[in-house]
Amino acid sequence: MSNLTCFKAYDIRGRLGDELNTDIAYRVGRAFAEFLKPSKIVVGIDVRETSEELMMAFADGVMDFGADVINIGLCGTEEVYFATKYLEADGGCMVTASHNPIDYNGMKMVRAESRPISADTGLADIRAMAEKNEFGGPAAKKGELTQLDNSAAYTEHLLTYVDVENLSPMKLVVNAGNGAAGPSLDRIEAALKAKGAPIEFVKINHEPDNTFPNGIPNPLLHEQQPVTQKAVLDNGADLGIAWDGDFDRCFLWDNEGNFIEGYYVVGLLADAFLSQSPGSKIVYDPRLTWNTVELVESAGGSPIQSKSGHSFIKEMMRSEDAVYGGEMSAHHYFRDFAYCDSGMIPWMLVIDLLSKKKTSLNALVKERMAKFPSPGEINSKVEDADKTIEKVLGQYGEAAKNIDKTDGISVEFDEWRFNLRKSNTEPVIRLNLETRGDKSLMKEKTDELLSLIRG
Question: What is the mean pLDDT of residues 238-245?
């Protein structure tokens, strides 16, 4: 029985060759089918060189169980989520390593209705079966593999998030990072054009390319951000948008080329939804909260806090019937999108909001960033995360107005607050901090906390 290290808390990710190969992919597919007992599942792939062969091996495992496989081809993770629900499949698997290094690949799996499968909802069981590798022979009737282009239904669904007839003329810089987003953007562009929307796309790094000539697409990397920024300024664009490799996250630049932190985008999208469906519930994560809570409450909505991480957010949204959920990590979740995350819906909501409010993105977020300044998430490598968190709590806990332990520790004072939590995947702790309109206090407290954490 071999130990499979490619299984993580929410998905599968591993170095090609030893941690993930076609033999392991077959075993994962077979175990996935044994666990779900499906009659049909959906598969899709990102642009990586090994994605096709890993997907075929996974599909073989599923078909040997006796289930049919629908292959929707090159796509984003969200297209597998959408197709799983839309085609009423019993599960789905996206073969992608998103923004991991080029010698990695992985899989993101869901069950019926695109409900997440994570360590505590089946992934551990699938891992145990794949490690044991005792499946017996193939089923009496092997499942069938069919190719299906589901992109028209997906594109049509995306357009329901915007009032196409009333969009203002806009120029958008779109940076697919040579990942999977390019073909989907072309289809969205064609659909908008067909409906007469005055939206112009300036495309950079647009063609899918498994050699990633411009680096693995990860717009959170500071060295990648100036590319989109420069294109926005050079083209006098209203908005810059860039995606990671499987485009389940999108990142925004305003009309002045400023990168907009994910935290402020959550508030923006909450506002967009509450203007469309007043009184709705909005789910947010505990890392940075004041801006989101204020915006949601002032728009007549109900803010609901959830632990960070897609399976927690999705579960909370389902139980509360929330219309939208947002994490500052640039994952945005939508009730009408099977409660799943999408990297295409956010920018469409933003252009809809800008058209309705007759304003620029810069004008919308500048005021919010000044009102609740934050330095963004800061990671620190530590030897013992739990001990470090205890030490920080010992220092700040007594004077705090409120302490919340939903996710790590959130410690609140009248004029500032911070959240400190450990990573699921690496020996680091992540600090987030915000103040009420006081940039010098933000800097002072950030420095103070970092010297305690790293001291």
Answer: 98
**Looking at the structure, do residues 36 and 125 belong to the same domain, yes or no?**
yes
Specify whether 283 is located in the same domain as 396.
no
pLDDT (average), residues 288-304:
97
Residues 6 or more apart in contact with residue 368 via CB below 8 angstroms: 264, 267, 291, 295
pLDDT (tens digit per residue) in 355-396: 999 999 999 999 999 999 999 999 999 999 999 999 999 999
Within this chain, do residues 312 and 402 fall inside the same structural domain, yes or no? no
Strand order in the sheet with 428-435: 378-381, 428-435, 416-422, 409-412, 402-404
* Selection from 90, 117, 107 nearest residue 27 by Cα: 107
Q: Report the alpha-carbon distance of residue 183 to residue 165 in Å, rounded.
A: 24
The Cα–Cα gap between 258 and 269 comes to 18
Does residue 350 lie in a domain region?
Answer: no
Q: Is residue 450 part of a domain?
A: yes
Q: Which residues contact 306 (CB under 8 A, 6 or more apart)?
A: 283, 284, 285, 312, 313, 315, 316, 317, 325, 406
The reply to whether 396 falls in a domain is: yes
What are the two backbone dihedrals, phi and then psi, of residue 292, each rounded to the nearest 5 degrees? -65, -50
Domain end (from 239, 258, 277)? 258
Q: At which of 258, 292, 316 does a domain end?
A: 258
Instruction: Give the structural domain span for 280.
Output: 261-341
pLDDT of residue 196: 98
Number of domains present in the structure of the chain? 4
185 & 245 share domain: yes
Confidence of residue 2 (pLDDT cuts 50, 70, 90): confident
Q: Annotated catalytic, 2?
A: no
User: Do the domain assignments include residue 248?
Assistant: yes
Catalytically annotated residue among 2, 39, 51, 98: 98
- How far is CA 86 from each of CA 333, 375, 391, rounded to the nearest angstrom? 17, 40, 49
Residue 82, domain CATH: 3.40.120.10
Q: Say how far apart CA 114 and CA 108 lie, in whole Å.
A: 11
